[in-house]
Amino acid sequence: MSDNTLASDFFDAAISLLGQVRDAGGEEIAAAGTLLARTVEEGGRVFAFGAGHSSLPAQDVVYRAGGLAVMNLLTVPGSVGVDVRPATLGSALERVDGLASAVLDTGPVRAGDLLFVISLSGRNALPVEMASHARELGIRVVGVTSVAYARETSSRHSSGTFLKDHCDVVLDSRIAVGDAELTTDGVPAPFAPASTVVTSALMQAVVATAARELLDRGIEPPLLRSGNVDGGLAWNDTVMERYADRIFYR
């Protein structure tokens, strides 16, 4: 099997997953977009959290061209994983009870805000506690996860629950347990994960839905432009000044 065939196989797998998510998750994407638009309309703040590689889709919607200026990254020191040494520390922190509650109790998120919690497996203590404690504090939660893990694995949280059990809206990435789309003779492990592609697409679909919802409500969506086009930086300065009280990454 040639490398080009494997490349094509990966694209086919990713496209298939994107189609499944689009066709099966339309109602949930719409619900999450409505929740995001409503939060912006009501003056709430919006945050996204993910640990390990699940941080990538969270980062993808924060301070970027074509994105909502009010999207903020909720950070847990060390949890991104690849930015610390050893990288395995990030995985260990995901299994620590109490860490998420400490972050929420001392951080900027408050009642009435919206928090996206992204976790492929949704089984570790950090994302489960992040969602459950957020709701205790009156924060609305959208979970982005693979529901298959709740069917095929056991929870690592003391409650025995998964991320999906503590959300106002659940977006199912439909990624298979193990997060690898390809196998081939001579390679002993499956490879080519697609979770980042699919989860990032889900997040962008929610942002797109919210932009339409805001427009329908008579509100200009607070969208950023590319700083690499003429006038983009001045545009962004105006938007960020208007929404300064909801932006925490400056």
From TrEMBL:
SUPFAM superfamilies from the UniProt entry: SIS domain
GO molecular function, one term: carbohydrate derivative binding
Domain of life: Bacteria
Domain SIS: 36-220
Entry's Gene Ontology BP terms: carbohydrate derivative metabolic process
Entries under InterPro entries matching the protein: RpiR-like_SIS, SIS_dom, SIS_dom_sf, SIS_GmhA/DiaA_subfam, UPF0309
Pfam families per record: SIS_2
Family: Belongs to the UPF0309 family.
NCBIfam families, A to Z: PRK02947.1 (NF002805)
HAMAP family recorded: UPF0309
Protein name (record): UPF0309 protein AN218_08235
Organism, scientific name: Streptomyces nanshensis
